[in-house]
Amino acid sequence: MDRDERKLTKPLEVIGRYKYALLVALLGAGLLLWPSHTAPAVEEQGPSLPAGAMTLRETEEAMESILERINGVGRADVMLTLHSGSELVLAEDTTLRYRGDVQSPDDYERSSDTVTDSGGVVVTQERYPQYRGALIVCDGGGSDAVRLQVIAAVSALTGLGSDRIAVVEWQGAAADSGLGQK
C-alpha cells in the first residue's frame, strides 16, 4: 500500500512544483480559444487602394502645402506626370494542363483564378506610382537658392532626378514683390 500512496502523491508533487507554469499555460490556451471580434463583412467591389494611398491630385496638394512652408517659396503650384500609376498585384491560382508528351506537348491549356479570402481578393504586392516629371511654379522660383531647395524636396518625395524637375517663377511674381522695379 505504501507503493500505491507514493504513486498518488508523486503527480501531486509535480503539479505543486510546476503550478505557476501550468497556470500560465492554461491561461494562454484559454486566450487562444477565446472568441475574437470579427469585422463586419465587406462588400467585394474589386481591388481598392490601401488606406494610406493617395490619388495624384492629393499628392500634388500635399506637396504644394509642404513646399509653401520652405523659406522663400511663397505660393506654389505642383504638377506631376506619371510614367505608371499605382497597381495592385493579385494572387492567382494558375493551372496548366498538357496534352501529349510533357517534353513536347501537342497542346496545353492554362487557366487562372484570382485567390480570395473572407475579406475579398488577396493582394500579393502593391506597386506605387512611378513619376515621369514634376513642374513647380512658385513665387520664389526666380531664386537659385529656392530652386535648389525645391528640387531637393521634390526629388526626396518622388524619387525623380533633378533633370526631371522644373522649378519656375510664378508669372508676375518679380513685379509683385518689387524685384522687377529699377
Q: What would your notes on this structure say?
A:
- This protein has 182 residues and is of the alpha+beta class.
- Helix content is 35%, strand content 30%.
- The chain is built from five helices and nine strands, in the order H-H-H-E-E-E-E-E-E-E-E-H-E-H.
- It has helices at 2-17, 19-33, 56-67, 144-158, 173-177; strands spanning 76-84, 87-90, 92-100, 105-114, 116-117, 120-121, 123-127, 130-138, 165-169.
- The strands form four sheets. Strands 1-8-9 form a three-stranded mixed beta sheet, covered by helices on one side.
- Strand 3 (92-100) and strand 4 (105-114) form a beta hairpin.
- The longest helix is centred in the first third of the chain and has 16 residues, at 2-17.
- 11% of the residues are buried.
- Residues 39-51 have low confidence and may be disordered.
Question: What's the gist of this structure?
Answer:
The protein contains 5 helices and 9 strands. It is of the alpha+beta class.
What is the element string, with H for helices and E for strands? HHHEEEEEEEEHEH
Average pLDDT over all residues: 76
Secondary structural class: alpha+beta
Q: In terms of per-residue confidence, which ranges show pLDDT below 50 for 5 or more consecutive residues?
A: 39-51
The helix tally amounts to 5
Rough outline:
flat
Radius of gyration: 32 Å
Distance between the termini: 118 Å
What proportion of the residues form beta strands (DSSP E)? 25-35%
Strand order, main sheet: write it out: 1-8-9
Largest sheet: 3 strands, mixed
User: What is the number of E strands?
Assistant: 9
Measured as a percent range, the helix fraction is: 25-40%
